[in-house]
Design goal:
Layout: E1 5-6, E2 17-18, H1 24-29, H2 56-67, E3 71-76, H3 81-84, E4 89-91, H4 93-102, E5 108-112, H5 115-124, E6 130-132, H6 148-160, E7 167-172, H7 177-185, E8 189-191, H8 196-206, E9 209-213, H9 216-226, E10 234-237, H10 248-253, E11 256-259, H11 271-280, E12 285-288, H12 294-298, E13 302-303, H13 306-315, E14 321-325, H14 328-337, E15 342-345, H15 361-372, E16 379-380, H16 384-398
Parallel strand pairs: 3-4, 3-5, 5-6, 7-8, 7-9, 9-11, 10-11, 12-13, 12-14, 14-15
Antiparallel strand pairs: 1-2, 6-16
The structure holds iron/sulfur cluster.
Length: 401
């Protein structure tokens, strides 16, 4: 029997989604277990308000007012509307990290985003400030694709080949604090989707080769489309295979060693999505994030970070038509914000970041009311030695030429 179809969000003015496409099993499994070292985190303790509570918004407003300037709420662009309406500052991971670093007075930083972002905020805030993640199960599947042990094994392999000293690690912001610390300890820098080109160009002034972690697509797209390298200059390190599944010669001759990680949201967009969209919507412009696959990025009209996607739509003329390849909450928000432009979602099926969506209004209310009651909950605190070296890599990014 065909699954029932439901319309969701303004971005779906032209498309319907099959409600069987969402894996509730995946959502339910996340958050179980007690793996504090993982981006998966743990599930929230305590009695959460019911999502159906008609007084939830009022409770959120009351708790927010009670916390006043003691709290700052940061909201990532991929967050739900019900949460983002309470954010003091919205932004991508880089902008929110900067906002955390610039506010040294708020006692609590409530981070409506995912675990690695809250870690970066903890590293960049003062020791007295406390960073709170309303749901500890809000992780990032991409960050989980590079564990500290796997990266250590890779580095050991490069040392065995005698090339580690001429290899500079560049680590995407979307990584655990442990991987950022590895990067800081080994002469590398963190990067974001908006400064990856500068970070990689800088790395080539420091060494001969780059180890790019953990997003293969951002690394490949930047190396080939921004720095002019060839696809054959890049090799893919598979952490599940001995020596990354590569020969010594392949590793030695590569200019960029890409870690085999990807974003489960942006990795879904395909060339076929673009072809179908162009066929059915004349004049559409394709706007995608650089975490998308190389053939998608290569065939798009505009490629840019989350902040650049927002700016591109905002600066576009009335009447223009865009098909956007990024997280659906943001695309829906852009469609609602710019009703005189036609903003479509590039894929036909649902494409929320399931872990970002763990942060909902009940969790935010629970976290704020707990703080009001004097209970510190869900604090994200990076261990001191890890934080020290991760900060080195973050500060190298902030100082990029
Ligand atoms: S959108 Fe992708 S990179 Fe961002 S938090 Fe979700 S899984 Fe991670």
């Amino acid at each position: 029997m065909p699954a029932k179809s439901i319309p969701i969000g303004l971005a779906y003015r032209d498309f319907w989604v099959d409600n069987g496409a969402m894996s509730l099993t995946d959502l339910l499994l996340l958050g179980q277990g007690q793996d504090l070292a993982s981006e998966r985190g743990v599930s929230c303790d305590g009695a959460l308000p019911a999502a159906s509570d008609p007084g939830l918004i009022q409770r959120a407003q009351d708790a927010r007012a009670a916390l006043g300037s003691r709290a700052m709420i940061l909201g990532h662009h991929y967050q739900r509307e019900e949460v983002i309406q309470f954010a003091d500052i919205t932004g991508d991971s880089f902008k929110l990290a900067q906002a955390a670093a610039e506010n040294s007075s708020a006692e609590y930083v409530l981070f409506c985003g995912v675990h690695f972002m809250a870690e970066s905020a903890d590293i960049l805030t003062t020791p007295e400030q406390k960073v709170i993640l309303p749901d500890l199960a809000a992780g990032c599947s991409m960050a989980d694709m590079a564990s500290a042990n796997q990266v250590d094994d890779c580095w050991q392999a490069l040392q065995n080949l005698g090339i580690a000293q001429s290899t500079i690690p560049i680590t995407y912001m979307n990584s655990t604090a442990a991987i950022k610390a590895f990067t800081g300890q080994n002469g590398g820098a963190v990067c974001t989707s908006s400064n990856a080109e500068r970070a990689m160009a800088w790395a080539f002034t420091q060494g001969e080769k780059i180890l790019f972690l953990p997003d293969q697509h951002l690394g490949r797209n930047t190396a080939v489309l921004k720095l002019g390298l060839k696809l054959s200059d890049c090799v893919l390190w598979n952490p599940w295979k001995p020596q990354g599944g590569l020969t010594a010669e392949e590793i030695r001759s590569a200019k960029v060693i890409l870690w085999r990680g990807h974003c489960s949201v942006h990795g879904r967009f395909t060339l076929s999505n673009i072809e179908q969209m162009r066929a059915r919507v004349p004049g559409v412009q394709i706007l995608v994030h650089p975490e998308c696959q190389h053939e998608v990025v290569s065939n798009a009209d505009v490629v840019g970070s989350t902040e650049m996607i927002i700016k591109t739509i905002a600066d576009s003329p009335s009447g223009s038509t865009w098909a956007v390849g990024t997280e659906l909450n943001l695309v829906s928000r852009l469609a609602a914000r710019f009703p005189d432009r036609r903003v479509l979602f590039l894929d036909k099926t649902v494409c929320y970041c399931s872990t970002m969506n763990r942060i909902d209004l009940p969790h935010l209310v629970w976290a704020m009311e707990s703080l009001v009651a004097g209970r510190l909950v869900n604090r994200i605190q990076v261990e001191a030695e890890t934080a020290k070296y991760a900060k080195v890599a973050l500060e190298r990014m902030l100082a990029l030429p």
